[in-house]
Amino acid sequence: MAKPAVVIVGADKGGVGKTTVSRTLLDYFGAHHVPTRAFDTETPRGTLARFHPDHTEIVDVNSVADQMKIFDTLGSTPAQVTVIDIRAGLLSSTLQALSDIGFLESAKKGQITFAVFHILGPSIASLQEIAETARFVGDASYFLVKNHINDTSFFDWDPATYNSYFNQIKNAQEITIPKLNEMATEQVEVASVPYVQFVANKSGKGEAANYSFVLRGYVRHWLGQVWAEYDKVKLVDLLSPKAESNVRQVAG
């Protein structure tokens, strides 16, 4: 069996679009035919689970029983990649728990592939979070995600200040998530389906839908930009080296 991979998506601040990134990751791995499962720690309602119910389980990341449900099954699940959408404010405490249980040590020994998607928020506090996470991630693949979900200009930090935080993590790479048209965003939210399903004009049950041609076009273009960012950092090669190289085109 291929070495399991775990991707944590989180931040210590809310409203930065963590679940948006998790949704694009599930669509991306699906397009590459990488068996993937997800855990939504936004208990009890689970935002990620609303869009990807077939692949997502809602858990309490602070619960030892739920931690066992995630990490004790890494070697037995058919899924090659496990995506964990961390509830707002719990990134640092979750990384501390992973250190306590020996997960980070296993990743350091090469027994598990580990990646952290750290989603930045609109303040200097987000940069300060990097110093906190740097204590834990070690040799893990660390992605600093500039998510323009709110179309703000908070990424115009002084380069020296930004780099002083960014360079604290050995394997850090940048990923930029562009802003999606507001109306398109709203319509996907209402449809409660994966982005690729919205583009393909399919309902939650896989039946033909009647989504706007224009809005589907905006989502298709945006998703292509996001996937190009993942291609840039060779995400599939990192997490699933044997995955198919022929990616399905986002359906029209």
Please render the helix and strand layout as text:
Elements: E1 5-10, H1 18-31, E2 36-40, H2 47-51, E3 56-58, H3 64-71, E4 81-85, H4 91-100, H5 103-108, E5 113-119, H6 124-137, E6 141-147, H7 159-166, E7 172-177, H8 182-191, H9 195-199, H10 213-232, H11 235-239
Parallel strand pairs: 1-4, 1-5, 2-3, 2-4, 5-6, 6-7
Written description of the protein model:
It is a single chain. This protein has a 7-stranded parallel β-sheet, with helices on both faces. Strand 2 (36-40), helix 2 (47-51) and strand 3 (56-58) form a beta-alpha-beta unit. With 252 residues, the chain is α/β, with parallel strands linked by helices. It has a single domain (5-179, 227-239), classed as Rossmann fold (3-Layer(aba) Sandwich). Helix 4 (91-100) runs parallel beside helix 6 and helix 8 (182-191) packs across helix 10 (213-232). 42% of the residues lie in helices and 15% in strands. Mean pLDDT is 87; it is low at 244-248. It has helices at residues 18-31, 47-51, 64-71, 91-100, 103-108, 124-137, 159-166, 182-191, 195-199, 213-232, 235-239; strands at residues 5-10, 36-40, 56-58, 81-85, 113-119, 141-147, 172-177.
Shape: globular
H-E order: EHEHEHEHHEHEHEHHHH
Based on secondary structure, the structural category is: alpha/beta
CATH superfamily: P-loop containing nucleotide triphosphate hydrolases
Largest sheet, if any?
Answer: 7 strands, parallel
Question: What is the CA-based Rg, rounded?
Answer: 17 Å
- How far from one another are the termini? 35 Å
Protein name: CobQ/CobB/MinD/ParA nucleotide binding domain-containing protein
Organism: Undibacter mobilis
